[in-house]
Structure formats: structure tokens, C-alpha cells
């Protein structure tokens, strides 16, 4: 079906009014688009129904807070904010303001992820016993990063290999299998020195010390349900950079009492975004028949017309606009994910 037109851009907020005006011109927005340089002024604008925050993570809080307090509908990209304190302030402001909230954990509505969830809930492999995820990514290189992604190696910014690279996948796994309990982890920084290069010349311009874990092991219990057996568990391994040469970037298996599911993404772990330059496949191994079946998934026709990076985000907007947003992440749900991730980091800091 054709996508729903959910609205028009009526205002643009930037670091200053002048910067906002330049952005309006750059993106060829209508000349009547309002230019703002102050988040409070945007929050006070009665013509704005939905505020979309897609800045760097360390600016999310100051950008979104006035609108959340004002009761506006607010969509913030993941991560919600740069640290636990700022996350909690946004969660509380949204509760008090009463507006609808969204956080960009759009991987939940990526077709392969939804297909996995459907297979589990339909009982295709019986009751889930365990799941294992082996992934490598976060950055394209284990030893280098472009200047534009230097902040991916800095915990203080809040958007990094751990919170973004691992964090998106961490949410998708729990969307499919249920929220983890009794999480234990082992995090390390095995390659602290990272070369920062100029993408134009490819020359290294500096070497920095990363304070972001680049190797993550986690094990947890899965919640007992109609589709998951008591005592079921999950094991995750995520490391920064490339895989063993020729191996897929992501292999996710889910074993049940009657069969096993395997998702393989050759070129990336980012099922919410850019993992589709290579094949993303799903297979089901039926124990009774000893056969393996390829399970297809597909984008909607209207999504095929969009760039890959926009397809799952577009689905988030569609569901929000149509009122079919029960699976979308709110500020409250994002707060739960942040709490889980912060707990693992706290253990790492005190090990």
C-alpha cells in the first residue's frame, strides 16, 4: 500500500536561527518553514505536533526536554540521551507532559526481525530453549575510524560502538525473545589505541585512546512464556570491527524443542539500517524431518522506493501515524534498555 502522509515540516531547529535558515535552504524546504535556534521556542510553537530529534546523542536531552515537558509528541533517535541522569530526566518529563514518545529503535519493525518474532510466536520450532548471537561491527574497522565517527570511541558523548553498535542489536534480540533477566557480562577494551583518519586523503590524522568496550560477552535468562521454556537462556558476543575473513557479520540462532532458526547477515549487524548490502537470510531446521527450509522476508512496496536507511524508520512513522504503535519503543521502554546497558558498564568499570 502507499505510505500514509503524516504531515509536513513546519519548523526546523538548529544551533542558531541563522543556521536553521541555511538548513531550510539546503534541504529545499518551503520558504514559510519556521527557523528556530532555541528548543524552548520550538516547544512553544502550537503549529508543531511532532518533534523529531536527530542530532548527535549529547544534544538529544537539551533539544527534546522543553517539548517533552510541553506535552508534545516527541521522537528521539536512539540512544535517548548521553547518560543515565539525562535519560531519566527525559523519561520523567515525558510522563509529566503526557505526550506520545518514540525512540528510534526501528530495528524492531525491520522485516527480518519481525519474521523471527512471528516464527517464535507461531510455535514453528516449539518452545525456545536458547539463543546465541555472534556479531562483529559497530565500526567497519577494528583499528581505524573516520574523523566523523571519532565520537564512537568516546563514552561521554553517549553514542558509541557499545550503545549504538551493540545497543540496537541488544534491543532487537529482546524484542524477539523477551526482556532478559539475570544478565551477566564480561566487557573489555582490547584495542584501546584507534587511528583516526581523514576520509578524503585516507591519511591518519591522530591516534586516540578509546574508553568504549570493544568486546562484549553477555549471558541472560529469557522470560518463561507460551513460546519459551522455563530456564531458557541467551548468549551474546559482539566485537568491534571485522569478522574472520569470509565469515558473516551476524549469525543469530534460536534453538527450540522441535527445531532451530538461524538468521545470517553477511555484511553487517545493523538490521535496523545498513546491513542489507549483502544477503540477510533466515533458515529453519526441522528436527523431525531433518530438513532445512529457507524462510523469505520482504520489504513493503513503498519501502522499496526508499533508501535502505530510511525503510525501517519509515515504518516507525507509518505505525505512529496509524495508531498501530504498540511495538514501538517509548521513552519509558528506552529507559529500560539504557538501565540494562548501564548496569553492564557499571560492572565493567568496577571489575
Walk me through this protein's architecture.
With 351 residues, the protein is of the alpha/beta class. It folds into two domains: 11-106, NAD(P)-binding Rossmann-like Domain (Rossmann fold), CATH 3.40.50.720; 107-306, 2-Layer Sandwich (Dihydrodipicolinate Reductase, domain 2), CATH 3.30.360.10. Helices cover 30% and strands 28% of the residues. The protein has helices spanning 17-26, 39-43, 60-69, 84-97, 111-121, 161-177, 301-304, 308-322, 331-349; strands at 11-13, 34-36, 50-53, 73-77, 101-104, 128-137, 144-146, 181-188, 193-197, 204-209, 215-221, 228-240, 250-256, 259-265, 280-286, 291-295. The protein has an eight-stranded mixed sheet with strand order 8-11-12-6-13-14-15-16, covered by helices on one side. The mean pLDDT is 96. Residues 111-264 form the Gal80p-like C-terminal domain. It comes from Bionectria ochroleuca. Pfam families: Gal80p_C-like, GFO_IDH_MocA. InterPro entries: Gal80p-like_C (IPR055080), Gfo/Idh/MocA-like_OxRdtase_N (IPR000683), Gfo/Idh/MocA_oxidoreduct (IPR051317), NAD(P)-bd_dom_sf (IPR036291). Keywords: Signal.
